[in-house]
Amino acid sequence: ELESDPGLFTLLMEDMGVQGVQVEEIYDLGSVPLVQKKPCYGAIFLFKWVEDRRSRRKIVEEESLYVKDEEEINKIFFAQQIVPNSCATHALVSILLNCPQVNIGDTLRNLKNHVAGMNPENKGLAIGNSAQLAYAHNSHAVPRARRRFERSNAPSLPGSRYTGEAFHFVSYVPINNRLFELDGLR
Fold first, then answer.
1. Using CB atoms within 10 A of its CB, is residue 30 exposed (0-12), middle (13-18) or buried (19+)?
2. pTM value surpassing 0.90
3. Whether residue 137 lies in the annotated active site
4. Intra-chain end-to-end CA distance of the chain, in Å
5. Burial of 173 from C-beta contacts in 10 A (0-12 / 13-18 / 19+)
6. Rounded mean pLDDT of 133-145?
């Protein structure tokens, strides 16, 4: 698990080999439009995880909201999240591999070339099997022993950020004048 911290996300990207990109935190979407700070490659939102979230999703009848052109869909990088607690890395990778203008470095470039033409599940497996991405992610993750202690029935420590609730990172990426939600658990 990774903390929701823009500095940590920036370090994670640097450890992946990405150059010239920085993550910034926005506290109020109403005060500063996302795209006002150029360039804006995407957004990552942190949602409280609800186990039955998928079954309670709104059914949208607006057919115009969905992209059906298979050629356009295949140009988008999307991977299913296979490895538990890797949603932060998935959210970053989903944005970065959909931005051809970003210098993604050798690790992500090799991954992108390797998974070209694969389905989302196999792309997720490739991310999960990438030693470089696992090392970068684990370098910034909350240690397992600390998570076990915090999740035990012991009372919360004052000032502790852990609430006993699970959270999930989801990325939103502008591609061809459309905003795509890229959620590895959907």
1. exposed
2. no
3. no
4. 19
5. buried
6. 74
